[in-house]
Amino acid sequence: MSKKLSKAEKQAKYIRKFKKMWERSQSELCEVRNSSIHGRGVYATRLIKKDEKIIEYVGELIDKEESERRANVQAEKAAKHGDAAVYIFTIDEEYDLDGNLPWNTARLINHSCDPNCQAWIDGNRIFIHALKQIKIEEELSFDYGFDVDTWEDHPCRCGKQACVGHIVSRDQWSELHKRKQAKKAPAAKKSHQSASRKPTTK
Ligand SMILES: C[S@@+](CC[C@H](N)C(=O)[O-])C[C@H]1O[C@@H](n2cnc3c(N)ncnc32)[C@H](O)[C@@H]1O
Ligand SMILES: [Zn+2]
C-alpha cells in the first residue's frame, strides 16, 4: 500500500519533478534571440550535424480534454490581449504536452515551410533533432504540422523561397492549394463578368 504523503513531502516531490524537467530542457547547442520570423526564436550556437539531438521540448503531460480546456483559455486571452502563443504539442491520440514553461527554450522554435529540424516523439517525450546540417547562428525551425482546416488563421512569415504562405502541415499542401484556388475562383469569375460588361466604344 502506498504511504500518504505529507504536505512537505508533496512539495519536495513537486520541486524534484520540475528540477528534473528543467535539467532535461537545457542545451548548449542553441539559445533564444529575437527572430525575423516572429517574436523570439531559437538559434544554433554551433554547427549541428544532420540527425543530431538538439534539445528536448519539455512540458506537462495532459489528456485531450484538459488540452482543449487550456487551448480555449489561451484563445480567450488571445482575443482580449492579442497574445496568441499556444505551446501545446500533440503526443498521440490520447495525450498532449503543454510546454508553457518559461524555461522551456524549445517552445520558442518557430515554424518554417523549409525546416531544418524535426520533432521526434519517444514515448511521452519530445526531442528536437536536426533534419539537415545547421550552421552556427542559423534559426531553428520545424513544421508545426497544423491542419489545413485552420489555414486562414495562420499566415506564415518564414521567408523561405518554398514558403506556401500559411502554416500548414507539408502533407496537406496540395489540399491547401485547392482551397486557395477555390477561394480565388469566385473573385476571378466576377472580374471576368465585369470585363465582359465593359461599355463598347462607338
Ligand atoms: C510556439 S510560438 C513560437 C515562439 C514565438 N516566436 C514567440 O515569440 O512566442 C508559436 C507562434 O509563433 C508564431 N509563429 C511561429 N512560426 C511562425 C511563422 N513561420 N510565421 C508566422 N508566425 C509564426 C505564431 O504566432 C505561432 O502561433
Ligand atoms: Zn512559410
Kindly describe this structure.
By secondary structure, the chain is α+β, with helices and mostly antiparallel strands. The protein has a single domain, classed as Beta-clip-like (Beta Complex). The chain is 30% helix and 21% strand. It has three helices and ten strands. The chain has helices spanning 7-25, 64-81, 173-196; strands at residues 30-34, 40-44, 53-57, 60-63, 88-90, 95-98, 110-111, 117-122, 125-130, 141-142. The chain has a three-stranded antiparallel beta sheet with strand order 3-9-8, with no helix packed on it. A three-stranded antiparallel beta sheet has the order 4-6-5, covered by helices on one side. Strand 8 (117-122) and strand 9 form a beta hairpin. The longest helix is centred in the last third of the chain and has 24 residues, at 173-196. The N and C termini lie far apart (99 Å). The structure holds S-adenosylmethionine and zinc ion. S-adenosylmethionine binds at residues 35, 37-41, 84-85, 87, 107-108, 110-112, 156-158, 167.
Strand order of the largest sheet: 3-9-8
Helix-residue proportion: 25-40%
**Secondary-structure element string:** HEEEEHEEEEEEH
What is the first-to-last residue Cα distance? 99 Å
Put simply, the count of helices is 3
- Whole-angstrom Rg: 22 Å
CATH hierarchy: architecture: Beta Complex
The distinct ligands, each listed once, are:
S-adenosylmethionine, zinc ion
In the CATH hierarchy, what is the class?
A: Mainly Beta
User: What's the number of extended β-strand segments?
Assistant: 10
CATH fold annotation:
Beta-clip-like
